[in-house]
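Worked example

This section walks through a single chain of length 465. The input is the sequence exactly as stored; nothing has been trimmed or padded.
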Amino acid sequence: MINLSLLKNCHALKKSFLKSGKLHFCTDSRRYQHPGAFVAIPGAKVNPLDLIDGLLQKKCPLVFFQEDAINNEKVRSLSSHYPETEFVPVSDSVTFLQEVSHEHIKEWKKNNPRNTVFAISGSNGKTTHKEMLSFILKEVMPEKVISTEKNNNNHLGVPLTLLGVSEETEIVVLELGSNHPGEIKVLCDIAQPNAGITTNIGATHMEFFGTEEKVFEEEAYLYQAVKEVTGGKGFYLINLDDPYLKSLGPTVGSLTYGTSSSAMAKVSFLDDGAEIHSSGIDLIARNSHITGQHNKLNLITCLLIASRMYPEYKSQFVEACKNFRPTKNRSEWIHFENRSVYLDAYNANPSSMKAALEGFKESVLSQGFKMSEACIVLGDMNELGETTPQYHEDVGSFVQKLGFDNVYFVGRFAEYYMKGCRHGQKKSSSAEFKSEYRNECLKQFPIHFIKGSRSLQLESLFDIT
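Given that input, the structure is written out below as tokens.
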């Protein structure tokens, strides 16, 4: 929701349109809510002005469009059929969306000093942190929290999240995504985060970054942004267990955490969760629905964030941790044909793959299974560039060292996995493997691990949509 008087400050707006009231903004005509404002963002092959008759029939009051000769002609025609809609030309639709969200969030923060944009960057666990933190907060203060939907964490998703802020909102849990250098800075310039965390640094999007040092430079820009916005007073968590992040210098508002003995907030693990001890605060997060130390760390970290920001609700946050469930296709346990399946068909990179495999082995043994009863299915890890063969072979070797016997590699890079794990089997695609998996693997093995990049659509092995 945004007060339209803020449009005065948007330089991309060529024609002033000021009315009282508040509107929802959207860029997808299929998700339009009345009353709302639609921002028509040109696609590579599709002009959105050709697809908006449905929302115009709902009497959408305001449409922003990118001005050019073709669009001006389309708008003249649309205006004659839908006179109740005001069509506002802008020089660039994306720039307009970013500027208006920036002005809106500045106004929101100015109105209440406690209002917080808590941003999350990092190579792995961004969405999990966002889901866990927003869940914990919403369990206790549901009307005061908004967060990134799904993983809409880019140059369009971030502005749309910010435009959802209302007078009742006190905290925005904002996920920041990047696969090219400089993208985190763009998002920080828009959102002006005054608190945050960089989860970890790993081999992600190496096709575009080249080295982990460049990944660190990109993801840790959030630290610099919070420092600049708040003069170093903003709450920021620094992961001392990460070899890159531990180099970040202390600020007035920063808090170090991790298993390191020198961490200000010391983490230790339990069978069903984790605990953290810090000056003035002791916390235990328990949850029987998550797997692996990496997810236990994610949960206790989110409990720490929530409790530091809203100490008056600490006991309620502790209880909320028990109720968290992983989101669909992302580090979730499903039961399919009387089999236990760990499914993460959303994303994969070398560090997340290793962490998930270690957590799965822990679950196999704790549930009383033998390693020979587990079935491992690994799909491609994308966007690794020239390092693709090396990283797949390394993960293959890791699988073999963990002691898994029944291993299947699916996708274009299966042969690279096989160099590290020679007893594995190679499959070209999920479609090619599906029949064998359903008719043989599921019947033979009682517990399964499925993980790969989104392009593999490994959930299709179960006909899950």
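What to look for: The chain has three domains: 2-91, 112-321, 332-462.
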